[in-house]
Write a structure and sequence with these properties.
Blueprint lengths: L3 E5 L6 H12 L2 E4 L1 H13 L7 H9 L2 E4 L2 E4 L2 E2 L7 H10 L3 H15 L4 E5 L2 H5 L5 E6 L2 H16 L5 H17 L12 E4 L5 H15 L1
Parallel strand pairs: 1-6, 1-7, 2-6, 7-8
Antiparallel strand pairs: 3-4, 4-5
The structure holds cytidine-5'-monophosphate.
Length: 217
Amino acid sequence: MSFIIAIDGPAGSGKSTISKILAKKNNLIFISSGQLYRICSWFYLKKQYENVDDKFINEINKLNITYENDSFLVNNKNIGNELISNEVSMHASNLAINEKIREFVNLKINEIFKNKDIIMDGRDIGTKVFPNANLKFFLTASLLERSRRRQKELKQKNNTKCSLLKIYLEIKKRDKQDKNREIAPLTKAKDAIVIKTTNKSIEDIEKIIQKIIDEKR
Ligand code: C5P
């Protein structure tokens, strides 16, 4: 039987950073499901689509998406750095309201990670993707703190300088859209454990979650 940990929460709540560390310690595969939405968004923008029609769905289905060293590869290429811009982030959220896109992502997840021991972060992992996950966490942090973290990430990964206000407004808009969409909105699963991450170090958050994992495994 596979062991699954679901980590949900809004952008910048620390999900991916913590999940990556916990994956190594617990011998689990780390997956950020948002990367798949970002790949759809990147492709949509690159090919200048104007709506999600059957042609678009057909084309994304033709992409060869694989997984290696914590990253998705698209046609054998790691396009990680092209997925973190504000534009790709915002469009990922726009596309994520679409049922066909969600179906595509969830089928990919099932295809690549079936029967594997995983820690997956996202928005609907505990509620929809793995409702029977062994453990579920819901991470939160203030909007300002999350914006600061994202600004730092953009600087580190993409060497992009972006104003805090711009990021703050973008995340606020994305939160609103992710929480209020009809299908699989961002929400805490009933049985998820809430971890407030504002003012906590990565080590502190990791310790709290690791203790819970040790009790469960
Ligand atoms: O987690 P990340 O910021 O990379 O996700 C990008 C966008 O993908 C989110 O804003 C959200 O709209 C969408 N997403 C989703 N469900 C998931 C993961 C991400 O709708 N499980």
